[in-house]
Amino acid sequence: MTTMNAESGRAFHATEPVRTSTFNKINRFLAGTARRGQFAAMFGPTGRGKTFLTRAWAAGHEAVYLRARTGTTQVKLRRQISEALFGTEHMTESAIIKYFVEHPGCVLIIDEAVHLIGDYTFSGAKTLDSIRDIYDEVQESGGRFGVVFIFTDYTLKRLRECRLGSFLGQFINRFGNHLQIEQKVSFAYEIVPTVRAYFPEADDDILAWAKTVGDLRELHKLLALSYEEAVKFKEPVTRQSLEELQAQFETGEYPDEMEE
Nearest 5 degrees, angle CA 36-CA 75-CA 171? Predict the structure, then answer.
């Protein structure tokens, strides 16, 4: 059985991105979108790190990140962009375009873009098209401006085939770049780097447990909690302790409580 003392781990914060294969894919995708000034989209299931890794990238680059809200209209979206850029929602579309022209290489990232088409109405299609219009105006004014829409639990195929597909044809065809994050989590390139970000000396016993977790977001939480408990109680981290923590996390009860 593998045991690890707190000293064999490190105070890795869940706010730090782990350099996994998905981290590399998202960083290359966003960097390429910025460099080439593309109109682009990212697709993938929930819990795969799209938001977390994108926000981490945006924090270190010339980028504007926002999450589309449920029921967002064209006017509400323009106000969100204005607030993100200027600290006030009252700036005009012309001011927004001028900002992006004057900041070449800037990327506007709109997360939860599915909220823009959530009711599958023509107004939703117009909201998406309003961003395409801003993009076109910046490009025509000599700017180099990237746009990224993040669609959770969508694929490009599903977007084409949704009820708004016929209205979104021109919008979709404008994508100069897109990234599809797959559901399957890579053991070698995602699980192993994640575990070793917290416990560099973790061996096969701990890694085999980590493989059973499956969801990377949950794995991060369990590893962070196990490290905190090891430091607090000065106890070693074992596969058994990780499994007990996992059971508590999933059920709200300790294993011995469930056996009574």
Answer: 40
Q: Is 191 left (phi over 0), alpha (psi -120 to 50) or beta?
A: alpha
Exposure string for 46-67, b = 16+ CB within 10 A, e = fewer: ebbbbbbbbbbbbeeeebbbbe
CA distance 180 to 158: 12
Q: What is the per-residue pLDDT across 194-205, written as a single tens digit (0 to 9) for each? A: 999 999 988 899
- Distant-in-sequence, close-in-space partners of 150: CB < 8 Å, separation ≥ 6: 41, 42, 43, 50, 51, 54, 109, 110, 111, 112, 113
- pLDDT value of position 236: 82
> 171-191, pLDDT tens digit by residue?
788 898 999 999 999 999 999
3-state secondary structure of 4: strand
Residue 121 has phi, psi (to 5 degrees) of -105, 165
Per the CB < 8 A criterion, the answer to whether 198 and 4 are in contact is no
What is this structure's pTM?
Answer: 0.84
d(CA 39, CA 258): 52
Of 64, 52, 175, 73, residue with least CA distance to 117: 73
Rounded (10°) angle between helices 50-59 and 21-36: 50
Within a 10 A sphere around the Cβ of 70, how many other Cβ atoms? Answer: 10
Lookup: tokens for 137:
């105006």
